[in-house]
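Troubleshooting entry. The earlier prediction with uridine-5'-diphosphate gave an output that would not parse, so I re-checked the input for stray whitespace and re-submitted. Clean input:
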Amino acid sequence: MSNKPENLTLITDDGLRLDGRRADEIRPMKIEVGVLSRADGSCYLEWGRNKILVGVFGPREAHPRRSQRADSAVIRYRYNMASFSVEDRARPGPSRRSIEISKVSREAFEPVIMAELFPKTAIDIFVEVLQADAGTRTAAINASSIALADAGIPMKGLITSCAFGKVDGKIVLDLNKEEDNYGEADFPVAMTQDGEITLIQMDGNLTPDEIKQGLELVKKGCKEILEIQQAVLRKKFETPVEEVSEET
Ligand code: UDP
């Protein structure tokens, strides 16, 4: 978030944003499932200009052995930005930011992954941000949810994620890059299918009323994303009726 150039208007008088969206609209999302042959589950997701690839491995024996837990699987989440994913080359290797995003994203999944079924194992979620355009942590969580389901990891439900923010004094859903750069606040959220919040972060300042208003927008955004996720998974896993009758 930086100082906005004086002549830059992010929302026009008729309520349209620079990319033509209204305040309550998310960017277009495209999801492909099962794109990596060596991973147990995978997903490629585009959201606006973000491009995210996720590979899930496991449950598999956790190494090193001392990392194992006798009563459950350990969940590991690694968020990484490709050096070519941003305008100024991202320095390879972990950064404070990527370590923080990995931690909060792992925690966003812990309430739904049934880790207790797989003692002494590890479930690895590897996120590669190929192109970043604001909202990569939320995009990566949406993609990871699909990759976990693709890997057949038992979950109580999908996790869905979306941010709201404050731009030109207005509360809007799913910030794009200009809004992220020059807006007043960014507030990423992740939630279960039942609307229980598993990740909440805030950059900038918001009043309690603005947060309330933003959370209503996020609920709407997450509902739309959940429908996209469910449609993709249904398409992947549903068995055509003809195939079943041919085999029997
Ligand atoms: N960004 C960048 N270089 C970096 C980190 C971030 O150019 O080292 C850009 C990138 O487009 C990212 C955006 O800034 O999507 C917003 O970053 P933020 O830390 O808010 O996380 P995000 O919104 O991607 O979850």
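This one parsed fine. DSSP finds five helices and ten strands in the chain.
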